[in-house]
């Protein structure tokens, strides 16, 4: 069924989709250090390096497939692309649940990276059904949906870890499969046939997408801020589990609960605070404020030695969630509806580039400061790099200018 969406069902479906996808991803995070030590036989520093390789490979596949998924959704519609991706994702989680070697885990994570490149389609779907005035709030709801999933996923994953390191992968496969069935039953196509455009390979490859978007005036600084923010934010999924185990001696259950608390805080910021924050401060100031608070909270994590204090910092850290919804709204206003999928795909590729670099940079710094014989034991070293990236983003924001709306 194709046509203009009515009522709240389209938003409810896409938010449920993103929530369930985040649950599937978050389920596995608390058990990754133990799983990697299990299949490699190494210590925590060695496991962190493998974790960086897995996340880097995952991000590389998202870099390749982000613009492909976005452009395919501009050609064939949002619904078929989203459902196919979810089906592949469900099957791949089952492979991860059965994998007995690090190389099979690695290959499966590459496939997961390609299949999980559905964020661009979801963002384009929301852009299709939203007015310019609604975009910032609705893009904020994307973050809130991920936040809810991030709350449930790690918490459930930590509990499932009691049944073994593979149990969360089985659960993730079931979640992705249920999500696909739900979408097939209730999703309504948002992109009418007359608004679709031909698929072009030059636009579908990552560099082609960057070249085309780069020709649009006024996007450069904001895209740079987006890249730096996503690169810096990746420190949490990349090293948080390893950091809290090394610094505080936390169990997978405690790691899962701490990530759940972060998810709650992040959901509150992006679901409840983004609209009043933008109304009060405007998009530009909201981005400046969110970035500045990130610099401060990350700097404290470099030297922190108290687990309770680290938990207390989480609400402050989550204020960085103001940045991306306001930033997405600014960028979305600069392109036409026919280019929303392309823009979302290019942004997904930028995020993937950051996520390709981040695992190697953050896990290498973690390993260098925690391995046996390290000159200094400083598990928080990756957070210093993240703080510096946010400081650079703050400089770009100070010099950026608002954009005209493209109708």
CATH architecture annotation:
Up-down Bundle
Radius of gyration: 20 Å
Average predicted local confidence, pLDDT: 81
CATH topology: Growth Hormone, Chain: A
Q: Judging from the principal axes of the Cα atoms, what is the shape? A: globular
Name of the CATH first level: Mainly Alpha
Biggest sheet details: none
Explain the overall architecture:
This protein is an all-alpha fold and 407 residues long. The chain has one domain (9-191, 205-399): Up-down Bundle (Growth Hormone, Chain: A). The protein is built from 17 helices and no strands. The protein has helices at 9-28, 32-40, 44-76, 78-98, 102-115, 119-128, 132-160, 167-186, 201-204, 206-214, 220-233, 235-248, 252-303, 307-318, 323-332, 340-368, 381-399. Residues 1-7 have low confidence and may be disordered.
Structure at a glance:
The protein has 407 residues and is an all-alpha fold.
